[in-house]
Structures are given as structure tokens and as C-alpha cells.
């Protein structure tokens, strides 16, 4: 558990945030300049706040009231930057072993090497690694320092889409580790796939915080998250791989079919469905090419100044978001308690929107 409460002023910008990061991945999300990196630097000890309190696993790292300010090298914090920052003259194995200098103990690299798929890279030097491979090594080195909390400051921002797709499954594995992860990103798709908790920052303030599924499916949070990227995450399980190239998934509201997903039958997944890719119908439609039709109940409708409306649909304990026009919402009589059917196009869900559950 990581507890953060800091205030700091930088010229014309002020930071004033408070949140708790439990086990798993807590994503700090917001536009550039919202204060994400400043928060991470305060936790790492690279920034001394004007006031506040930072506690990691019950250990006070900073407390302005009592004068506690643990030095950077004693905070037991792992930090993964946008660039890997590996030692170019050392091999991968030697870069990983360097973590032992931080702990003062001989490190057992085997579990981390296996988790991050680094076995074939150990004899290489950083110059012979791809961007994704180098970031995996950087993550491994940070983990081998046995941190109480892992800080990841936009670790995929410098990678192209192919390299991101390569490294995302490894970051998902970290989510199940006991170490809390503070993950900075301005990519909502990335956050939706990885985060268990989301803290949304805007102009140095926390405007929304909570469990990832709740925040992403909350129409009131969409303005801060970004309307164009709005979408909810639902849980699913692989039920079968069909002969025509589709994979059948079971959800709380029924089956859906998506283009072939790599994974074994029974594997748990989380699927992000963009609000703009959901069509609503009051009755179950017939004669459509769309395969995925899920029954649900409208739980909230939010309208703004423009012509659009965001509709939250309850699916047996989980939620979808649909982005429709206000005219459509009025014509369908959409309000809380109304039964609807959500229609999802199979090809609208990209592979990057499907992650391990």
C-alpha cells in the first residue's frame, strides 16, 4: 500500500494531490502537464514537496510535519523511465546483477528472467536490443533491487505500436506481483488494459480516483478521461476457438465473438470496448451482421452542451458505455431502468484492447 499526499508550487503551477495506491497497478492518468511525473518524483525522493506525507508499506518516506525526508537511495523504490537507461558497456546479465549493489546482497535473477522472458538476451549488450527488449531489462533490474514500490513513468511512450504489443503482456504479469506499481501514462487504452486503480489528474489536482472498471465506466469521469477515447472494460473468459477464425468469449451478459485471440480455453481476459463502437436497441434486433448482442439495463445517462450523450449500461455487475446522440437517446426513451440491447461489432475491438484478466 502506498499513501500519497503532497502539495508543491512550481511558478505558475501548483500540485495538490492525495490518493492511495493498493497492490496492483495504480495508473496516474492525465494530459501532459497535469502533474503525473511530479507525483512520481516526489515518491522517489527526486522532488521534495512543500508539504505532505508519503508512506510506503507503513514506512514513512516523507512527512513535512515531522521533518522526515528519507534519502533517495534509502527509499527502496524501483524507477523505470521512458528510456531504459542501461549501462551500455555491460551485458544484460551484468545490468541485472547491478541491482545487487543496491540491496547489498547477491540477487537471484532466475525468477525475474523467467517472468520477463530475458533468458535469450543475457549475453547481449544494450546496443543489440530492441526498444521493447531494453525496457524489459530495465524493469527486471528495478525488480531485482527488491523495491517496496515500483514507479513506471510512461515506460512505453518511446516505443512503436509493435514494441508496445510485445511488452504489454510482461507488464501485465507484474500486476499480479505483491509490489504496488505506480504507472504514469497518457494513453487511455494502455491504462484500461493494465490498471487495477486509476487516479485521474487535471491541472495538478485529483479529479477522479477508484477501481479501474468503475472509473472507466463512469459517464461523469469521461470529460477528464477524454471523450474520443471513452470506453469501459468488462471481464471475459475464453470459451472456445471457432473454425472460422473467431474466438468465443463468455461474459456476465452472454457470449461475444472476436477475431482469434491467442490463449487457452478458460483463460481470463479483460476487454476494453470503446463507447463509440456500441449501438443501442430497445428490443433485440434481427437481421444484423453484428454477432455480439448483449442484454442490459440503462443505469445512467449523461448529456453535455453538445449533441452527444453517454449511456451507462449495467450488465449483471459490470458496465458498458455507449456514445450516442441526444436525439437518439430521446427517441429511444433512454433513462435509468430501461432495458436495452448493446450491439458490438467484432472487428471494432483491437488486439491491444484485450489483456490478461
UniProtKB/TrEMBL annotation:
InterPro entries: AAA+_ATPase, ABC_transporter-like_ATP-bd, ABC_transporter-like_CS, Mo/tungstate-bd_C_term_dom, ModC_ABC_ATP-bd, Molybdenum_import_ModC, Mop_domain, P-loop_NTPase. Residues 287-353 form the Mop domain. GO terms for molecular function: ABC-type transporter activity; ATP binding; ATP hydrolysis activity; molybdate ion transmembrane transporter activity. SMART domains: AAA. The keyword Cell membrane applies. GO terms for cellular component: membrane. Residues 1-228 form the ABC transporter domain. This is Molybdenum ABC transporter ATP-binding protein. It comes from Paragemmobacter aquarius.
Amino acid at each position: 500500500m502506498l499513501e500519497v499526499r503532497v502539495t508543491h508550487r512550481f511558478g505558475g503551477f501548483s500540485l495538490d494531490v492525495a490518493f492511495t495506491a493498493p497492490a496492483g497497478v495504480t495508473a496516474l492518468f492525465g494530459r501532459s502537464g497535469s502533474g503525473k511525473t511530479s507525483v512520481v518524483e516526489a515518491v522517489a525522493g527526486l522532488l521534495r514537496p512543500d508539504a505532505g506525507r508519503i508512506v510506503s508499506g507503513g514506512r514513512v518516506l516523507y512527512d513535512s510535519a515531522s521533518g522526515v525526508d528519507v534519502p533517495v537511495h534509502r527509499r527502496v523504490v524501483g524507477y523505470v523511465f521512458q528510456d531504459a537507461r542501461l549501462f551500455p558497456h555491460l551485458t544484460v546479465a551484468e545490468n541485472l546483477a547491478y541491482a545487487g549493489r543496491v540491496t547489498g546482497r547477491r540477487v537471484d535473477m532466475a525468477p525475474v528472467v523467467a517472468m520477463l522472458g530475458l533468458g535469450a538476451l543475457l549475453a547481449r549488450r544494450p546496443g543489440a536490443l530492441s526498444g521493447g527488449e531494453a525496457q524489459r531489462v530495465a524493469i527486471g533490474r528495478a525488480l531485482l533491487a527488491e523495491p517496496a514500490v515500483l514507479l513506471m513513468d510512461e515506460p512505453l511512450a518511446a516505443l512503436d505500436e509493435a514494441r508496445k504489443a510485445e511488452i504489454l503482456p510482461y507488464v501485465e504479469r507484474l500486476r499480479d506481483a505483491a509490489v504496488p506499481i505506480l504507472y504514469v501514462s497518457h494513453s487511455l487504452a494502455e491504462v484500461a488494459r493494465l490498471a487495477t486503480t486509476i487516479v485521474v489528474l487535471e491541472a495538478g489536482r485529483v479529479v477522479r480516483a477508484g477501481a479501474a472498471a468503475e472509473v472507466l465506466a463512469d459517464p461523469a469521469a469521461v470529460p477528464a478521461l477524454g471523450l474520443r477515447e471513452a470506453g469501459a472494460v468488462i471481464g471475459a473468459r475464453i470459451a472456445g476457438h471457432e473454425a472460422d477464425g473467431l474466438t468465443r468469449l463468455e461474459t456476465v451478459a452472454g457470449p461475444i465473438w472476436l477475431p482469434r485471440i491467442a490463449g487457452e480455453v478458460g483463460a481470463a481476459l479483460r476487454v476494453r470496448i470503446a463507447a463509440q463502437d456500441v449501438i443501442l436497441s430497445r428490443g433485440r434486433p434481427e437481421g444484423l451482421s453484428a454477432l455480439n448482442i448483449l442484454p442490459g439495463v440503462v443505469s445512467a445517462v449523461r448529456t453535455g452542451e453538445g449533441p452527444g450523450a453517454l449511456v451507462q449500461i449495467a450488465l449483471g455487475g459490470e458496465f458498458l458505455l455507449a456514445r450516442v446522440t441526444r436525439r437518439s437517446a430521446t427517441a429511444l426513451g433512454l433513462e435509468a431502468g430501461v432495458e436495452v440491447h448493446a450491439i458490438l461489432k467484432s472487428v471494432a475491438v483491437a488486439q491491444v484492447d484485450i489483456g490478461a484478466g
